[in-house]
Write a structure and sequence with these properties.
- This protein is about 25% helix and about 35% strand.
- It is α+β, with helices and mostly antiparallel strands and about 160 residues long.
- The longest helix has 12 residues, at about 145-155.
Length: about 160
Amino acid sequence: MARPTAALAVLGLAASLAGCAHERVADSGYRWAFLSDSSEAPRLAYGRPHSDDVVLMLSCSPGADSVRISAVGLNDREIVLASNRIESRFPAQKAESALAETGLLEARGRMSAPALVGFQHTGDLAVLTKGQRHNLRAKREDEGQVKAFFRSCAAA
């Protein structure tokens, strides 16, 4: 189950960045979690701990400059991530998921994309959609999870 779609399906996506859901994301204890085992690609998920509520998933291939991004609640043709004022755009395709009623987008890109590099160094990350910024900034207690993901992705 190395594909982010499968990982997201297992997590049972219940949240959305659409509508007022981004406010829930900011206010309801969402956290970053590094997920890794020997049979799957390293993943970094943003969601509510100990629940099926995940809104963004990053997955990498260790040693390669590639990332897969899955986001719930978006219906655009791209996923736009920002770290501070730096934006990176990832062309995306709609993915089928019975669990993501509000839309699931998947994109591929480079781990060296400026917004991801910024996120790695500062913990600041946001999803931009329809002129709104949805803050997914790593809290102090999540910084170790984010760093572990990027270390895992850099390993060959």
